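To illustrate the input format used throughout this study, we show a single complete record. The first block contains the structure-token representation of the backbone; no residue identities are included at this stage. The design step must infer an amino acid for every position from geometry alone.
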């Protein structure tokens, strides 16, 4: 008999066989304790069951998110389950066959269909063929905004026009005005459209965050716009970019807003891990080393493929490399402060009495 546990990624096996993490002198988990894209306990158990070919726990998990209108987790789980089904879809095919009209199975199926063709050179044409699956998912539960997030991604990938996209956007925000995934999809469409620009994306993100509750993930949307600015290819081909008309003040304000959001969640929690990893990258690019170090402690052992997969084929190694860089910078700054009689600010300037 095949040991299904041996077939699972290490982060899932670790959730079933915990061990006491070791600690670096900095108080951070040791390098070999850091996990990439670790699921929370509920998703971890569902993935273990799916690896055994069972869809019941997956169905129960997604049904619970509908019952509680937990749309953010529902979106996250649907993405992860579709990713798992791309390589091991026996459990999903059994589920789809047994319950072809199940709203949760329809949702995973729609996400899976989009994922399968996304990187194809013929993406736009192939995406049009999966439109009925997204429509069916949208009819599965009329309250659910997640099919509309998938539809927004689909519209971007199929080069849909602005009028059609606006209709989808209006339908999405009627269901969940502050759904993070739908906002990210809209910002990506804006960035990729012929009329899009980095300042326009920033305007959209700042307005959305201003209107959202303080504990909404939409508060991290400006930091995502900052990430886009800091990673944009300059028109002149030179290294580094901030994007036209995006000031340092706006980038810092976006980071500050995300820092405030991060502080609302428990430290070392997989739920806000992607928001914190992205924020840490932004803070490093802004050379806000003390704030970046604080996010390292908030992240704990939970690295995420985004953003580190943008820069390395090994996202975990990329995360660890940046983590070492932050620790080195903090150590160097501590030595300089100890050697200098004049305290310096976060950006390396001498602090003034009025700075307090």
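Output of the design step:
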């Amino acid at each position: 008999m095949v040991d299904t546990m041996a077939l699972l990624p290490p982060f899932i096996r670790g959730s079933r066989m915990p061990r006491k993490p070791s600690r670096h002198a900095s108080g951070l988990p040791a390098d070999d304790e850091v996990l990439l894209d670790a699921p929370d306990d509920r998703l971890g158990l569902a993935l273990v069951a799916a690896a055994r070919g069972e869809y019941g726990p997956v169905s129960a998990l997604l049904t619970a998110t509908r019952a509680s209108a937990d749309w953010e987790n529902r979106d996250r789980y649907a993405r992860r389950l579709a990713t798992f089904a791309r390589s091991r879809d026996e459990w999903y095919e059994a589920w789809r066959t047994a319950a072809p009209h199940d709203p949760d199975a329809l949702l995973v199926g729609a996400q899976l269909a989009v994922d399968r063709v996304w990187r194809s050179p013929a993406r736009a044409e192939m995406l049009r063929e999966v439109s009925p699956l997204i429509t069916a998912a949208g009819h599965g539960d009329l309250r659910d905004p997640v099919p509309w997030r998938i539809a927004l991604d689909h519209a971007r990938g199929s080069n849909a026009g602005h009028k059609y996209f606006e209709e989808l956007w209006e339908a999405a925000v009627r269901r969940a005005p502050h759904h993070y995934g739908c906002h990210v999809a809209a910002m990506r469409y804006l960035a990729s459209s012929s009329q899009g620009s980095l300042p326009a994306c920033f305007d959209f993100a700042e307005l959305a965050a201003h209107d959202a509750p303080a504990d909404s993930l939409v508060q991290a949307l400006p930091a995502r716009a900052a990430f886009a600015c800091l990673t944009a290819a300059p028109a002149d081909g030179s290294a580094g970019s901030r994007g036209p008309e995006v000031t340092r003040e706006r980038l810092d304000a976006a980071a500050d807003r995300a820092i405030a959001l991060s502080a609302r969640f428990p430290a070392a929690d997989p739920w806000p891990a992607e928001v914190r990893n992205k924020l840490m990258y932004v803070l490093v690019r802004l050379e806000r080393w003390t704030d970046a170090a604080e996010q390292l402690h908030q992240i704990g052992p939970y690295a995420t493929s985004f953003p580190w997969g943008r820069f390395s084929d090994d996202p975990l190694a990329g995360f660890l490399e940046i983590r070492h860089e932050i620790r080195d910078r903090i150590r160097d700054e501590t030595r300089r402060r100890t050697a200098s009689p004049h305290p310096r600010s976060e950006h390396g300037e001498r602090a003034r009495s009025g700075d307090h």
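Structural context for interpreting the output: The longest strand covers residues 35-36. Confidence is low (pLDDT under 50) at residues 1-23, 236-241, 348-356.
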